[in-house]
């Protein structure tokens, strides 16, 4: 089915410490951002709106050289503002996927699971279990333990009925920065389904994340 998509790529990538903002840095032979743009275009995303840094147009066009079918918008100071600006650039859509450029390896099967769950829910997110035990820390010391049974690690892309997430973002605007878009929809009462995430969707955050630990998503490419 047709779906709109947003990729937020307007951050500074400070923690990654790469020579370029991390979304434009190299990952497995091509720019980080290019990976998910190619995957979402191949999956049929239309429109595909990418939030980029102020004055980041040249870097984005270089990273996406030869690709067509995307539009660029200037992002905001926070991730949430970048999403809000990208949502404003979409005139109409039934469903929208919102994705972090910082998660380049996006298995198409995750997209299918998310879109499937949207048939019954206003939102859907990919999650993984927590396998480590969890500790509360105070002053460098263990102050208690937390049960992990009901905790999940949440990834992107996150999928939403377009009108629901657009309205939820408008209501949330001005509040504290949201961790992700599912939190924004949840605050407006939207029901969000969990689907299986994928370890390959790991987010590139720190410099060491750029050291490859998992095999490439697609064999024979990049
Ligand atoms: N992002 C964005 N606009 C912002 C901040 C973040 O579009 N104002 C995007 C980033 O480009 C990234 C995603 O949100 O794709 C997740 O954010 P994060 O991993 O924190 O990336 P950065 O903010 O760029 O990194 P850092 O916090 O280390 O500076
Ligand atoms: Mg950040």
TrEMBL record:
Keyword Metal-binding: yes
Biological process terms in GO annotation: isopentenyl diphosphate biosynthetic process, methylerythritol 4-phosphate pathway; terpenoid biosynthetic process
Site features described as Positions MEP for the nucleophilic attack, chain residue numbers: 148, 203
Region 2-C-methyl-D-erythritol 4-phosphate cytidylyltransferase, annotated ranges: 1-218
Keyword Nucleotidyltransferase: yes
Cofactor list: a divalent metal cation
Record site feature (Transition state stabilizer), residues: 15, 22
Keywords: Isoprene biosynthesis, Lyase, Metal-binding, Multifunctional enzyme, Nucleotidyltransferase, Transferase
Pathway terms, separated by semicolons: Isoprenoid biosynthesis; isopentenyl diphosphate biosynthesis via DXP pathway; isopentenyl diphosphate from 1-deoxy-D-xylulose 5-phosphate: step 4/6; Isoprenoid biosynthesis; isopentenyl diphosphate biosynthesis via DXP pathway; isopentenyl diphosphate from 1-deoxy-D-xylulose 5-phosphate: step 2/6
Its job: Bifunctional enzyme that catalyzes the formation of 4-diphosphocytidyl-2-C-methyl-D-erythritol from CTP and 2-C-methyl-D-erythritol 4-phosphate (MEP) (IspD), and catalyzes the conversion of 4-diphosphocytidyl-2-C-methyl-D-erythritol 2-phosphate (CDP-ME2P) to 2-C-methyl-D-erythritol 2,4-cyclodiphosphate (ME-CPP) with a corresponding release of cytidine 5-monophosphate (CMP) (IspF).
EC number: 2.7.7.60, 4.6.1.12
Assigned protein family: Belongs to the IspD/TarI cytidylyltransferase family. IspD subfamily. In the C-terminal section; belongs to the IspF family.
Identification of the protein by name: Bifunctional enzyme IspD/IspF
One function term, GO molecular function aspect: 2-C-methyl-D-erythritol 2,4-cyclodiphosphate synthase activity
Reaction(s) catalysed by this chain's protein: 2-C-methyl-D-erythritol 4-phosphate + CTP + H(+) = 4-CDP-2-C-methyl-D-erythritol + diphosphate; 4-CDP-2-C-methyl-D-erythritol 2-phosphate = 2-C-methyl-D-erythritol 2,4-cyclic diphosphate + CMP
